[in-house]
């Protein structure tokens, strides 16, 4: 049984190449940001041997756009690992500028063995690093 994961904050730098012909961030940049945020979350919490031995590929993203983002906005993605099931991980990510929600993303990812590139389950001790036990 998995507990509740801690939210992970990822600072986003809005670059000039993120801006589209309408003067705001192109929708494709949100996908790039979610990928960067999820991978940063993995690298920040997983032990080095697990990071070296596993790769992550996105299987599905469902994005709800709420408000546009602009060049030089202070944007933060809050990543929450919802569950790990087999070789799959399910994430929720909220992208904000201050208190304004810019986008909400549900995504699923597949863990791969870095050598064979085949789906790989994480060990329980690695999963537990993402779902800390509460002090009840």
UniProtKB/TrEMBL annotation:
Keywords: Hydrolase
Keyword Protein biosynthesis: no
Family: Belongs to the 4-hydroxybenzoyl-CoA thioesterase family.
Gene Ontology molecular function, alphabetical: fatty acyl-CoA hydrolase activity
Taxonomic lineage: Bacteria, Pseudomonadati, Pseudomonadota, Alphaproteobacteria, Sphingomonadales
Name by which UniProt lists this protein: Thioesterase
InterPro entries per UniProt: 4-hydroxybenzoyl-CoA_TE, HotDog_dom_sf
Keyword Hydrolase assigned: yes
Any Pfam family matching the protein: 4HBT_2
